[in-house]
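Sanity check. The docking grid for coenzyme A depends on where the pocket ends up, so I'm generating a full predicted complex first rather than guessing from homology. Inputs follow.
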Amino acid sequence: MPCAAITGWGAALPDQVLTNADLEARLDTSDRWIVERTGIRERRVGGTTTGLAVQATRQALSRAGMDPAVVDLLIVSTNTPDQPVPATASLVQGELGLAGGAMDVNSGCSGFVYALVLANGAIATGLERVVVTASDTVSRIVDPEDRSTAVLFGDAAGSVVLEAVPGEPMLLGWDLGADGGAASLLYQPRGGYVYMDGREVFRRAVRATAASAQAALERAKVDVSEVALFIPHQANLRIIEAVCQRLGLPMERSMLIVERTGNTSSASIPVALAEAVEEGRLSEGDLVLMSGFGAGMTWGSAVLRWGRRPA
Ligand SMILES: CC(C)(COP(=O)(O)OP(=O)(O)OC[C@H]1O[C@@H](n2cnc3c(N)ncnc32)[C@H](O)[C@@H]1OP(=O)(O)O)[C@@H](O)C(=O)NCCC(=O)NCCS
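Predicted complex below; grid placement will be based on this.
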């Protein structure tokens, strides 16, 4: 059976920086409160979901040295499309001249992990080159006057290129789940701003992320001590710390970008992955654990072996 390998990665962040000091100036909040409760110091805001997705995808294709005309499928994860119809993937495909199919996934902040598992499956069924891009611009759908959400979110896109290679499987274990009964804890009413029950979402995020990561590790037959890098969804530093504690994973083995980006929804994991690769934090054969949690409520985890692994 053909196996997938990640051969390209990319990230796009808007130029505009929104600092805690900027928020302090217009909201009843403080740098101290935001840092203590979330670990966030600044976020990047602006741009469009499609524009950021195009930028990140172009970078991932270029790093993979791949001609857009040979792509078989583009999957875009987004919870914040610029328009409901058509799919953001079609717009990205048109802009970059990609060949193949194009589809969107909307699974909250877990969307990238969902799309990665789907892409891996697509390669197992015979597709040769699949691009997975996650792009979100949540800053557009939060009430700028609501201190309980406005301080949390930023905008970004991240992308990876998967290619079929002979060799050992990349995806060793995964876990996907959803609890639609809890959907009203985090949602955007039609035409309105995001509503979130922060305290309850926090509680569930810790519990579900840790349980999902454990399930994926078990499926992969990997012990947590073997994980070289944990790439969690970047919503809140305290959530990541609590998850690491539950898993028995030292924080030094976690990739952290939340301080500079805020919560960029489904883009956070691929942006963190791209930065980890560029910083030289991943070597051939390393085991990587990714875990996300978000609106839906959804959760998803994946255990990957990094690099191309000849048979
Ligand atoms: C939102 C979040 C940071 C709030 O932190 P918390 O420790 O749970 O704080 P609470 O919501 O209990 O609020 C504590 C107090 O701070 C206040 N507060 C809320 N936002 C504030 C802000 N930006 N600045 C100052 N005070 C704020 C609240 O009004 C509350 O005041 P009260 O006690 O007088 O009612 C936290 O709940 C969280 O991160 N939740 C998960 C969010 C998330 O990750 N969502 C996306 C998942 S994908």
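Relevant for the grid: The mean pLDDT is 96.
Also worth noting: Residues 29, 33-34, 37-38, 109, 147-148, 151, 196, 198-199, 201-202, 205, 235-236, 239, 263, 293-294 surround coenzyme A (CB under 6 Å).
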